[in-house]
Design goal:
Elements (H helix, E strand, L loop, with lengths): L4 E7 L3 H13 L5 E5 L18 H10 L3 H7 L1 E2 L3 E4 L12 E3 L9 E2 L2 H14 L3 E4 L2 E6 L7 E7 L2 E12 L6 H6 L2 E3 L4 E8 L12 H4 L11 E6 L2 E7 L5 E8 L11 H11 L1 H9 L6 E5 L4 E3 L8 E3 L14 H20 L5 H19 L12 H24 L6 H6 L1 H24 L8 E3 L4 H9 L6 H29 L7 H9 L18
Parallel strand pairs: 1-2, 1-10, 2-7, 4-13, 5-19, 10-18
Antiparallel strand pairs: 3-6, 4-5, 8-9, 9-10, 11-17, 12-15, 12-16, 13-14, 14-15
């Protein structure tokens, strides 16, 4: 480290910290930036971290904002979207409902080997003049106030160094250095556990079937590149391929339905898979798969009361909030937090007062966090009902691509003037999403499940394909306002059609308070046109 007094000191040299440092370097070419990483030396390939699967915001942040698209394409795997199999206790993957796209859509996302990626980020940061210090253990943090610098005590081997910095960014992961120091931890009321391991083989679900018709549903036998979800009551299992030749396998489960002590080592996890996902268990046994690692997390979901401060500290990544690995939102929230943090640092180092921006950015980040949490909290019961699950997937995608992705791809997260203009549409969309999630819980709990042998092909929905493609089209102010309004109207139409189809299957559904609330949020009891959904969702 060439300077003991820095403009920005980043605590943690993983994904969140290194991307924050690189983003800052783009905005502030002359800033004195250092990153402290506890691990000594480069990360191993197939490093034991969650977060391999990116979705559109995270992928766009890495590829476009940070300019890493070439590295992603060359050294990682393009993801064939999400894929969901209602395969609990089924030995045949081709005999259950499958939800996914039969072909690639326009906007890429990636399966990322975190070791390869973080080593590349570290090299890029060092080449950009950022001091990346490995083997650095943070022993003490003294936060300054009223303009005073922050002081950080760092141990490297037997030596202790005192550093000062105008800004401290905590990217220390679950260590949560600042969150622990300041008592900022917050519960999400989402008691869910996870176990995961990696095996040195390719798990190709297409190999689990000899049915040519089933195999030909998807182009070029690319299912193995998907984040494959094997779904059951209160749980899901992930299958994520890595470019290093490993496959990541994880079990994520509601703590009350599937206690952690039934799966908290590899032997128990295999016993659990033999019951709930026997086809996967058989594939691992036939390959004589030996885990390269194994880990578990109890009650992994958590929040943080404050992530940006007027006193020039900030928190990003898992050091602050973590929702759920379902839909892979981790890198998205790194992208969103880093966007706000780097803008605050830029403003401060160029002489602008940051107080009002801290307040507004904190409110916005909190809003995105809370609206995304509604996709998970209390929703694991929906997984037991294939019809409700298929509705949830199409709804959640529409909400994500139509609202949050539009804000990020159109670079509007910090455009406070424009956010004010679309505020009513954003609030209406959020309220409708809350109502729709309640409806889905009731639908799963109170209607009989069916598990048809069918692919519900998202690529067969023209409006859905167009919504994905819309992320690639840059808009002026007028076009952006129209896009957000159109997204709200699309959600309203989709909600009405979902309710209409459910009521046709069971007229008593019209009397549910959840149905009434959803339809009221969707601007009244008007008839759906039946043009959005090309396949039955409630049967």
């Amino acid at each position: 480290m060439s300077a003991k007094t820095l403009d920005v000191l980043v605590l943690g040299g993983g994904l969140a910290g290194l991307t924050a440092a690189l983003h800052l370097r783009q905005l502030l070419p002359d800033a004195r930036i250092a990153v402290l990483e506890r691990r000594l030396g480069p990360a191993p390939e197939a490093i034991h971290k969650v977060g391999e699967s990116t979705v559109e915001i995270g992928a766009h942040y890495f590829g476009h904002t940070l300019g890493l698209e070439g590295h992603l394409r060359e050294h990682h795997l393009r993801k064939f979207g999400f894929r969901f199999f209602s395969s609990d206790r089924h030995d045949s993957i081709d005999d259950v409902q499958e939800v996914g796209a039969s072909r690639y859509l326009s906007v890429p996302s990636y399966q990322i080997d975190r070791g390869i990626f973080e080593n590349h980020l570290s090299e890029r940061a060092s080449s950009a003049g950022i001091g990346v210090v490995s083997g650095a253990v943070v022993e003490a943090i003294q936060l300054g106030s009223d303009g005073a610098l922050h002081a950080v005590s760092v141990r490297r081997g037997d030596a202790v160094e005192q550093l000062t910095a105008r800004w401290v960014i905590d990217a220390s992961g679950r260590a949560g250095l600042l969150k622990r120091k300041l008592g900022l931890a917050e519960s999400t009321d989402h008691p869910t556990n996870a176990v995961w391991f990696r095996v040195p083989l390719k798990i190709d679900v297409d190999d689990w079937s000899e049915d040519s018709q089933w195999l030909e549903r998807c182009e070029h036998r690319q299912r193995w590149r998907s984040t494959n979800h094997l779904i059951g009551d209160g749980y899901w299992v992930w299958l994520i391929p890595l470019s290093s030749g490993y496959h990541s396998v994880g079990i994520v489960a509601d703590a009350s339905t599937h206690p952690l002590d039934r799966m908290n080592n590899f032997g128990r996890a295999m016993d659990w898979l033999r019951v709930h996902q026997p086809r996967l268990a058989r594939a691992l046994v036939e390959a004589d798969a030996k885990p390269a690692d194994f880990a578990f997390l109890r009650h992994f979901s958590y929040g943080c009361r404050e992530v940006f401060s007027r006193d020039r500290w900030a928190i990003t990544g898992e050091a602050g909030v973590f929702l759920d690995p379902f839909y892979s939102p981790g890198s998205d929230f790194i992208a969103i937090a880093n966007t706000y943090i780097t803008d605050l640092v830029r403003r401060d180092l160029t002489g602008d007062p940051i107080g009002p921006y801290v307040t507004l950015y904190s409110q916005l980040f909190r809003s995105f966090y809370e609206s995304t949490l509604t996709l998970y909290r209390g929703q694991y019961g929906v997984f037991a009902h294939p019809g409700a699950l298929s509705i949830k997937v199409i709804w959640d995608y529409t909400y994500y691509w139509g609202v949050l992705c539009q804000l990020f791809f159109q670079e509007r997260l910090t455009d406070l003037r424009m956010l004010g203009r679309v505020r009513d549409d954003l609030l209406s969309s959020r309220a409708l999403n809350d109502a729709a999630q309640s409806f889905l819980r009731r639908l799963a709990a109170d209607t009989p499940p069916h598990n048809p042998r069918v692919l519900l092909d998202q690529a067969a929905l023209p409006w859905f394909v167009d919504l994905n493609r819309s992320l690639t089209i840059q808009l002026d102010d007028t076009g952006f306002r129209e896009r957000i309004r159109a997204s709200r109207e699309l959600l309203e139409s989709l909600a009405i059609e979902i309710a209409d189809r459910a009521i046709k299957a069971d007229p008593s559904i019209a009397l549910w308070p959840e149905t009434v609330a959803m339809l009221e949020r969707a601007s009244g009891l008007r008839s759906a046109d039946g043009q959005l959904l090309a396949y039955p969702l409630a049967s």
